[in-house]
Amino acid sequence: MRIKRYLAHDMQEALLRIKADLGKDAVILSTKKVRQKGLFGFFKKPLIEVTAACEEEKIVKKDEEAIRQESLALSLQMTQIKELEKKIDSLEKALKEVIKKEQDESISQTRELSKKNFLDVMKENLIKNGVENEIVDMLLSNLNTEASINSVVNNMYKEIKNMLGAAAPLSFNSRLPKVVFFVGPTGVGKTTTIAKIAAKLMFEDGKKVGFITADTYRIAAVEQLKTYAEIMNIKTKVWYEVNEYDRIIENFTDSDVVLVDTAGRSHKNQEHMEELKAFVHKANPDEVFLLLSATTQPSVFKEVVNTYSFLDDYKVIITKVDEVSTYGNILNIRYFTQKPIAYITTGQNVPDDIEQFNPEQFAKLIIGSRVL
């Protein structure tokens, strides 16, 4: 075990140095304030001494692990591409067999039968991947059935990619601080997602971040956000009553962005939804993110989306993508919300398990299928 002590001006600086030196698996053993040496040290802000430790093996293998993870990610992408190519080859082979069996039919009759067979297979494939029937029928109706098989597959991919739309991550304008609300039903992972975005804004974009939590229904939620805030040295305020907002936001005049965590509201609880409306109306946020789980059934998130229709504009974050084996729900959410998708989350690790939405990647996953 390797143990090191770090002197830093604040906790954020110490965490950055520990992560760079010992890696993300390092464990903080202790922290304390240390008065700077010398007479003038009494008039200066005390430093923070942080003791951290990490297993020697993990330090040595840190770079190797990063390379291994990149190789695995690249290997996964190549595997998905090869699977898609195999599926297309399989479809072509199946059609050739159909044509061979029907060789006594006229050329026009054979083409008509093979095309119908192909479209049936494609429709079944999309449904097995979780795409709603309404969307499948619309996609098929937009295809040119006179085109070749390869053209039909390529056009289907383009249709799905266009329907998914471009990613719409958090953006910045001239207003500071930028106020961003995170809303959604219970259990979708709002607090963890906020921590992931905050970490990326701080460590990758150099932004100064503040937290406001309006989730006072769950004490654990407040404590969870405060824990993340303490680790990242982020200023945090709790918002209890609507009319407290003006006083609270004055604490963040030096921040670039303020992320507001709201209580998970049941879309069937009208009283709670009215409270949320009041909070949103009072703050008039620059952006709102509605979080929806990839595991939610379409019939349920349709109700959720309808309940949040009071929002003038919002973007979508899809959580728990790592918990599904098919990806049709990504397309369903985009279609029924008609709102851009900003991010997807793929686990509980902060800040790693979040990424900007990639429509090309998910179009390939949606059109592909393990059953072919």
UniProtKB/TrEMBL annotation:
SUPFAM superfamilies for the chain? P-loop containing nucleoside triphosphate hydrolases (SSF52540)
Localisation per UniProt entry: Cell membrane
Q: Known InterPro entries for this protein?
A: AAA+_ATPase, FlhF, FlhF__GTPase_dom, P-loop_NTPase, SRP54_GTPase_dom
Q: What domain of life is recorded for the organism?
A: Bacteria
Q: Which residues form the AAA+ ATPase domain?
A: 176-322
Q: Which residues form a coiled coil?
A: 74-104
Record membrane topology = Peripheral membrane protein
Protein name (Swiss-Prot/TrEMBL): Flagellar biosynthesis protein FlhF
What role does this protein play? Necessary for flagellar biosynthesis. May be involved in translocation of the flagellum.
The entry assigns this protein to a family as follows: Belongs to the GTP-binding SRP family.
Organism of derivation: Anaerocellum danielii
The UniProt keyword set, sorted, is: Bacterial flagellum biogenesis, Bacterial flagellum protein export, Cell membrane, Cell projection, Cilium, Coiled coil, Flagellum, GTP-binding, Membrane, Nucleotide-binding, Protein transport, Transport
Q: Which CDD domains is this protein grouped with?
A: FlhF (cd17873)
Please name the Pfam families in this protein's record: SRP54
Residue ranges of the SRP54-type proteins GTP-binding domain?
Answer: 177-368
